[in-house]
Amino acid sequence: MSTNDAGETKVNDKGMVTIPAGIRRRLDIDGGDKLRWDVTDEGS
């Protein structure tokens, strides 16, 4: 796995997204884990 993993995901009609498998593995995200979304004023 590279040090710069990138992925693209589509938001479904219910507002849900799928995190690409490589990113889930790299970040050790498992089913049931909670994620926090932080958005800056710059939108990133």
Automatic annotation (TrEMBL):
Q: Does the keyword Amino-acid biosynthesis apply?
A: no
Q: Which Gene3D superfamilies match?
A: 2.10.260.10
The protein's UniProt keywords, in alphabetical order, are: DNA-binding
- Where the record annotates domain SpoVT-AbrB, the positions are 9-43
- Name the InterPro entries for this protein: SpoVT-AbrB_dom, SpoVT-AbrB_sf
Q: Does the keyword DNA-binding apply?
A: yes
Name the Gene Ontology molecular function terms of this record. DNA binding
A Pfam entry, by short name = MazE_antitoxin
**What is the protein name given in its UniProt record?**
AbrB/MazE/SpoVT family DNA-binding domain-containing protein
Q: Which organism is it from?
A: Halocatena marina
Q: What is the lineage of its organism?
A: Archaea, Methanobacteriati, Methanobacteriota, Stenosarchaea group, Halobacteria
